[in-house]
Design goal:
The structure is a single chain. The protein is mainly α and 294 residues long. The protein has one domain (3-293). The chain is 74% helix and 2% strand. The chain contains eleven helices and two strands. The protein has helices at residues 3-22, 31-46, 60-87, 90-111, 119-137, 156-180, 186-205, 213-243, 248-254, 257-268, 275-293, and strands at 144-146, 152-154. It has a two-stranded antiparallel sheet. A hairpin with a 5-residue loop joins strand 1 and strand 2 (152-154).
Protein backbone atom coordinates (compact mmCIF):
# COMPACT_ATOMS: atom_id res chain seq x y z
CA UNK A 1 0.00 0.00 0.00
CA UNK A 2 1.32 3.45 -0.87
CA UNK A 3 2.22 5.89 1.88
CA UNK A 4 -0.54 8.28 0.78
CA UNK A 5 -3.20 5.57 0.95
CA UNK A 6 -1.96 4.39 4.34
CA UNK A 7 -2.08 7.92 5.75
CA UNK A 8 -5.63 8.39 4.41
CA UNK A 9 -6.86 5.14 5.95
CA UNK A 10 -5.18 5.79 9.31
CA UNK A 11 -6.63 9.32 9.38
CA UNK A 12 -10.03 7.76 8.64
CA UNK A 13 -9.56 5.36 11.56
CA UNK A 14 -8.76 8.25 13.90
CA UNK A 15 -11.86 10.17 12.79
CA UNK A 16 -14.03 7.05 13.15
CA UNK A 17 -12.70 6.29 16.62
CA UNK A 18 -13.15 9.92 17.69
CA UNK A 19 -16.84 10.10 16.84
CA UNK A 20 -17.49 6.72 18.45
CA UNK A 21 -15.86 7.90 21.67
CA UNK A 22 -17.66 11.27 21.66
CA UNK A 23 -21.08 9.87 20.76
CA UNK A 24 -20.93 6.54 22.63
CA UNK A 25 -23.81 7.33 24.99
CA UNK A 26 -26.12 9.10 22.55
CA UNK A 27 -25.76 6.47 19.82
CA UNK A 28 -27.44 3.91 22.07
CA UNK A 29 -30.80 5.54 21.38
CA UNK A 30 -30.81 3.55 18.13
CA UNK A 31 -33.01 4.65 15.24
CA UNK A 32 -33.54 8.26 16.43
CA UNK A 33 -29.77 8.74 16.61
CA UNK A 34 -29.29 7.16 13.18
CA UNK A 35 -32.02 9.42 11.73
CA UNK A 36 -30.41 12.56 13.12
CA UNK A 37 -26.95 11.28 12.20
CA UNK A 38 -27.94 10.88 8.56
CA UNK A 39 -29.52 14.34 8.54
CA UNK A 40 -26.51 16.00 10.17
CA UNK A 41 -24.03 14.12 7.99
CA UNK A 42 -25.80 14.85 4.71
CA UNK A 43 -26.49 18.46 5.71
CA UNK A 44 -22.97 19.33 6.85
CA UNK A 45 -21.17 17.69 3.95
CA UNK A 46 -23.61 18.90 1.29
CA UNK A 47 -21.95 22.30 1.72
CA UNK A 48 -18.64 20.73 0.69
CA UNK A 49 -19.91 19.32 -2.62
CA UNK A 50 -19.28 22.49 -4.67
CA UNK A 51 -15.83 22.81 -3.09
CA UNK A 52 -14.87 19.25 -4.07
CA UNK A 53 -15.81 19.36 -7.72
CA UNK A 54 -19.53 18.61 -7.48
CA UNK A 55 -20.48 15.58 -9.55
CA UNK A 56 -17.43 16.01 -11.76
CA UNK A 57 -17.67 13.91 -14.91
CA UNK A 58 -19.90 11.28 -13.29
CA UNK A 59 -22.78 9.84 -15.29
CA UNK A 60 -26.06 10.85 -13.60
CA UNK A 61 -27.67 7.42 -13.98
CA UNK A 62 -24.56 5.76 -12.53
CA UNK A 63 -24.61 8.23 -9.66
CA UNK A 64 -28.26 7.55 -8.83
CA UNK A 65 -27.78 3.79 -9.08
CA UNK A 66 -24.67 4.00 -6.94
CA UNK A 67 -26.19 5.94 -4.05
CA UNK A 68 -29.43 3.92 -4.05
CA UNK A 69 -27.62 0.58 -3.76
CA UNK A 70 -25.20 1.99 -1.19
CA UNK A 71 -28.01 3.51 0.87
CA UNK A 72 -29.86 0.19 1.02
CA UNK A 73 -26.69 -1.71 1.96
CA UNK A 74 -25.74 0.74 4.70
CA UNK A 75 -29.24 0.65 6.20
CA UNK A 76 -29.19 -3.16 6.12
CA UNK A 77 -25.82 -3.11 7.90
CA UNK A 78 -27.08 -0.82 10.65
CA UNK A 79 -30.27 -2.79 11.21
CA UNK A 80 -28.54 -6.17 11.36
CA UNK A 81 -25.92 -4.79 13.73
CA UNK A 82 -28.59 -3.33 16.04
CA UNK A 83 -30.48 -6.62 15.99
CA UNK A 84 -27.28 -8.42 16.90
CA UNK A 85 -26.63 -6.13 19.86
CA UNK A 86 -30.19 -6.73 21.07
CA UNK A 87 -30.00 -10.54 20.72
CA UNK A 88 -26.40 -11.44 21.51
CA UNK A 89 -23.34 -10.44 23.46
CA UNK A 90 -22.06 -7.05 22.32
CA UNK A 91 -18.38 -8.04 22.28
CA UNK A 92 -19.15 -11.23 20.33
CA UNK A 93 -21.18 -9.39 17.70
CA UNK A 94 -18.62 -6.63 17.34
CA UNK A 95 -15.59 -8.91 17.12
CA UNK A 96 -17.27 -11.30 14.68
CA UNK A 97 -18.53 -8.48 12.47
CA UNK A 98 -15.31 -6.48 12.35
CA UNK A 99 -13.28 -9.64 11.73
CA UNK A 100 -15.49 -11.37 9.15
CA UNK A 101 -16.24 -8.20 7.16
CA UNK A 102 -12.63 -7.59 6.05
CA UNK A 103 -12.05 -11.32 5.48
CA UNK A 104 -15.00 -11.51 3.07
CA UNK A 105 -13.92 -8.27 1.41
CA UNK A 106 -10.41 -9.59 0.82
CA UNK A 107 -11.67 -12.92 -0.57
CA UNK A 108 -14.08 -11.27 -3.01
CA UNK A 109 -11.50 -8.67 -4.04
CA UNK A 110 -9.00 -11.43 -4.82
CA UNK A 111 -11.47 -13.67 -6.67
CA UNK A 112 -13.65 -11.17 -8.53
CA UNK A 113 -11.70 -7.92 -8.67
CA UNK A 114 -8.43 -9.61 -9.60
CA UNK A 115 -6.46 -7.76 -6.92
CA UNK A 116 -3.03 -9.22 -6.20
CA UNK A 117 -1.43 -7.76 -3.07
CA UNK A 118 2.07 -8.93 -2.21
CA UNK A 119 2.38 -12.03 0.01
CA UNK A 120 3.77 -9.84 2.81
CA UNK A 121 0.78 -7.52 2.58
CA UNK A 122 -1.60 -10.47 2.79
CA UNK A 123 0.21 -11.69 5.89
CA UNK A 124 -0.29 -8.20 7.30
CA UNK A 125 -4.00 -8.38 6.48
CA UNK A 126 -4.31 -11.67 8.38
CA UNK A 127 -2.45 -10.20 11.36
CA UNK A 128 -4.67 -7.09 11.40
CA UNK A 129 -7.85 -9.18 11.31
CA UNK A 130 -6.57 -11.47 14.08
CA UNK A 131 -5.77 -8.45 16.23
CA UNK A 132 -9.17 -6.87 15.63
CA UNK A 133 -10.94 -10.08 16.64
CA UNK A 134 -8.66 -10.28 19.66
CA UNK A 135 -9.65 -6.76 20.70
CA UNK A 136 -13.32 -7.74 20.52
CA UNK A 137 -12.96 -10.93 22.50
CA UNK A 138 -10.72 -9.35 25.12
CA UNK A 139 -13.93 -8.61 26.98
CA UNK A 140 -14.43 -12.34 27.57
CA UNK A 141 -17.48 -12.79 25.36
CA UNK A 142 -19.00 -16.27 25.37
CA UNK A 143 -19.07 -18.33 22.22
CA UNK A 144 -21.89 -20.51 23.41
CA UNK A 145 -24.93 -20.15 25.63
CA UNK A 146 -26.64 -22.77 27.75
CA UNK A 147 -30.36 -23.37 27.33
CA UNK A 148 -32.72 -24.20 30.16
CA UNK A 149 -32.44 -27.89 29.32
CA UNK A 150 -28.70 -27.78 29.86
CA UNK A 151 -27.95 -27.95 26.15
CA UNK A 152 -25.50 -25.69 24.42
CA UNK A 153 -26.44 -23.55 21.47
CA UNK A 154 -24.55 -21.08 19.38
CA UNK A 155 -24.57 -17.56 20.74
CA UNK A 156 -26.87 -15.58 18.40
CA UNK A 157 -24.19 -12.90 18.55
CA UNK A 158 -22.05 -15.10 16.31
CA UNK A 159 -24.82 -15.43 13.72
CA UNK A 160 -25.68 -11.74 13.69
CA UNK A 161 -22.00 -10.86 13.75
CA UNK A 162 -21.45 -12.90 10.58
CA UNK A 163 -24.51 -11.34 8.93
CA UNK A 164 -23.15 -7.92 9.85
CA UNK A 165 -19.80 -8.94 8.37
CA UNK A 166 -21.55 -9.85 5.12
CA UNK A 167 -23.23 -6.43 5.10
CA UNK A 168 -19.89 -4.69 5.76
CA UNK A 169 -18.25 -6.57 2.89
CA UNK A 170 -21.20 -5.82 0.59
CA UNK A 171 -21.21 -2.05 1.07
CA UNK A 172 -17.40 -1.89 1.10
CA UNK A 173 -17.09 -3.70 -2.22
CA UNK A 174 -19.97 -1.80 -3.83
CA UNK A 175 -18.60 1.56 -2.74
CA UNK A 176 -15.14 0.64 -4.01
CA UNK A 177 -16.75 -0.30 -7.34
CA UNK A 178 -18.57 3.04 -7.40
CA UNK A 179 -15.28 4.89 -6.88
CA UNK A 180 -13.01 2.94 -9.22
CA UNK A 181 -15.29 1.66 -11.98
CA UNK A 182 -18.08 4.23 -12.07
CA UNK A 183 -15.81 7.15 -11.22
CA UNK A 184 -18.22 8.74 -8.74
CA UNK A 185 -17.03 11.68 -6.60
CA UNK A 186 -16.58 10.65 -2.92
CA UNK A 187 -18.20 13.63 -1.18
CA UNK A 188 -21.29 13.89 -3.39
CA UNK A 189 -21.63 10.10 -3.30
CA UNK A 190 -21.57 9.97 0.50
CA UNK A 191 -24.03 12.85 0.85
CA UNK A 192 -26.32 11.11 -1.62
CA UNK A 193 -26.53 7.77 0.13
CA UNK A 194 -26.77 9.36 3.60
CA UNK A 195 -29.71 11.46 2.42
CA UNK A 196 -31.39 8.31 1.08
CA UNK A 197 -31.07 6.67 4.49
CA UNK A 198 -33.53 9.18 5.98
CA UNK A 199 -36.72 7.81 4.38
CA UNK A 200 -35.73 4.28 5.42
CA UNK A 201 -35.20 5.29 9.05
CA UNK A 202 -38.39 7.39 9.02
CA UNK A 203 -40.44 4.43 7.82
CA UNK A 204 -38.89 2.13 10.42
CA UNK A 205 -39.76 4.52 13.25
CA UNK A 206 -43.40 4.96 12.23
CA UNK A 207 -44.92 1.62 13.38
CA UNK A 208 -43.76 2.08 16.97
CA UNK A 209 -44.16 5.85 16.84
CA UNK A 210 -40.47 6.21 17.71
CA UNK A 211 -40.41 9.45 15.78
CA UNK A 212 -41.64 11.01 19.04
CA UNK A 213 -38.18 10.33 20.46
CA UNK A 214 -36.48 12.53 17.87
CA UNK A 215 -36.86 15.74 19.85
CA UNK A 216 -35.60 14.16 23.07
CA UNK A 217 -32.64 12.61 21.26
CA UNK A 218 -31.72 15.95 19.72
CA UNK A 219 -31.96 17.87 22.98
CA UNK A 220 -29.97 15.28 24.91
CA UNK A 221 -27.20 14.80 22.38
CA UNK A 222 -27.00 17.54 19.75
CA UNK A 223 -23.28 17.94 20.41
CA UNK A 224 -22.73 14.23 19.83
CA UNK A 225 -24.84 14.41 16.68
CA UNK A 226 -22.72 17.30 15.46
CA UNK A 227 -19.58 15.25 16.07
CA UNK A 228 -21.11 12.32 14.23
CA UNK A 229 -22.24 14.50 11.33
CA UNK A 230 -18.75 15.90 10.90
CA UNK A 231 -16.42 13.01 11.74
CA UNK A 232 -18.30 9.90 10.59
CA UNK A 233 -18.68 11.08 6.97
CA UNK A 234 -15.11 12.42 7.03
CA UNK A 235 -13.77 9.01 8.02
CA UNK A 236 -15.62 7.29 5.19
CA UNK A 237 -14.76 9.95 2.61
CA UNK A 238 -11.08 9.33 3.37
CA UNK A 239 -11.65 5.59 2.93
CA UNK A 240 -13.43 6.14 -0.39
CA UNK A 241 -10.52 8.26 -1.64
CA UNK A 242 -8.06 5.60 -0.49
CA UNK A 243 -9.88 2.94 -2.55
CA UNK A 244 -9.06 4.90 -5.70
CA UNK A 245 -5.30 4.58 -5.10
CA UNK A 246 -4.95 1.30 -3.19
CA UNK A 247 -6.51 -2.20 -3.38
CA UNK A 248 -9.70 -2.57 -1.37
CA UNK A 249 -8.28 -5.86 -0.07
CA UNK A 250 -5.75 -3.76 1.87
CA UNK A 251 -7.87 -0.69 2.66
CA UNK A 252 -10.71 -2.65 4.28
CA UNK A 253 -8.62 -4.41 6.95
CA UNK A 254 -6.45 -1.40 7.80
CA UNK A 255 -9.45 0.86 8.44
CA UNK A 256 -10.29 -1.43 11.36
CA UNK A 257 -7.47 0.27 13.28
CA UNK A 258 -10.33 2.41 14.62
CA UNK A 259 -11.36 -0.59 16.73
CA UNK A 260 -7.92 -0.61 18.31
CA UNK A 261 -7.98 3.12 19.03
CA UNK A 262 -11.33 2.83 20.81
CA UNK A 263 -10.00 -0.15 22.77
CA UNK A 264 -6.87 1.73 23.85
CA UNK A 265 -9.05 4.65 24.90
CA UNK A 266 -11.12 2.23 26.96
CA UNK A 267 -8.02 0.96 28.76
CA UNK A 268 -6.34 4.31 29.38
CA UNK A 269 -9.35 6.52 30.12
CA UNK A 270 -12.29 4.25 30.98
CA UNK A 271 -10.16 1.63 32.79
CA UNK A 272 -11.80 -1.33 31.06
CA UNK A 273 -11.12 -4.90 32.17
CA UNK A 274 -8.27 -7.07 30.84
CA UNK A 275 -6.02 -4.18 29.85
CA UNK A 276 -3.04 -6.40 29.01
CA UNK A 277 -5.09 -8.48 26.57
CA UNK A 278 -6.54 -5.37 24.94
CA UNK A 279 -3.16 -3.69 24.58
CA UNK A 280 -1.63 -6.93 23.33
CA UNK A 281 -4.30 -7.27 20.63
CA UNK A 282 -3.77 -3.63 19.71
CA UNK A 283 -0.05 -4.24 19.23
CA UNK A 284 -0.87 -7.19 16.97
CA UNK A 285 -2.94 -4.88 14.77
CA UNK A 286 -0.09 -2.35 14.66
CA UNK A 287 2.30 -5.07 13.50
CA UNK A 288 -0.18 -6.04 10.77
CA UNK A 289 -0.47 -2.45 9.59
CA UNK A 290 3.32 -2.21 9.36
CA UNK A 291 3.38 -5.32 7.18
CA UNK A 292 0.59 -4.02 4.95
CA UNK A 293 2.36 -0.71 4.50
CA UNK A 294 5.78 -2.22 3.82
Amino acid sequence: MSTTALILVLAAAIAHAAWNIIAAGSSRSGLPFLWWGSLFGAGIWAAAIPLTGGLGDANISDFIRGIVVSGVLHVAYMLVLQRGYASGDLATVYATARGSGPILTVIVALLLFGERPTPLALVGVAVVIAGVVGVGFAGGAPVRRTTGAGRHRMDPGIIYGLLTGVAIAAYTLWDAHAMTELGLPPVAYLVGFMALELPFFSALMMPGRRYRELTATFRAGWKSLLAFGLLSPLSYILVLIATTIAPISLVAPVREVSVVLVSVYGVVVAHRSRPLLRIGAALVVVCGVVLVGS
